Amino acid sequence: MPEIPDIIPISDLLRGNSDHNQIDTLTISWALHRVIGLSSPANSNKEEELDHQLRSSKAQILFTVSSDLPTAREAASKDRLAEDRRILCQPPSDESLLESLQTVSQMIGGGCTLSELDELQFTKKQDTRQIAFLCYYGGSLGAPQAIMISHYNEIVNLRQLHLFDRLMKDAFAPHYRDNALCLMPFFPPHICRLVAVCHISI
Predict the structure, then answer these.
(1) φ, ψ of residue 159 in degrees (nearest 5)
(2) Which Gene3D superfamilies match (predicted)?
(3) Tens of pLDDT along 35-51?
(4) Domains along the sequence of the chain with CATH
């Protein structure tokens, strides 16, 4: 397996409560892609599974929600992920947490004061080598396994769906277009959800 660049797991730990779903989830992934990073979406409320993902992905930072902070903290501490590398996706109800943790909103505010990044330029065929998502599957018969999804994988799937969809829509009516309502949760991070739910409507 090739060496994996810096990863930001997004701990969108869902327990059947819509309060745990975060609209920032994909925005964080796209921001990371903008700086040639990759995202490893997490969907587990078990500390040992999150610990395995942090450890095997060599994660550098963790985004989570305040309701799942105990699980995230426990897993992150095992992997020696410093407190300033644990980011909350939304302002916590307990404001004392802000003394040691940043929020996504604070990061966006800080970023607004910085100069623009240079335009991203991929080299030839870099999209086939550059990993966009590191998704974990399985776990019922052992530790979940990581699946590397490159930018090229994502783009080709989107183009296939777009071309297929356009033929069907044009046959239905000229210039017919659907309006899509994207319901959360976006994860578990199956490739079909990343493509068909999260990206095709954009």
Answers:
(1) -65, -40
(2) 3.40.50.980
(3) 888 888 876 667 888 88
(4) 7-151 (3.40.50.980)
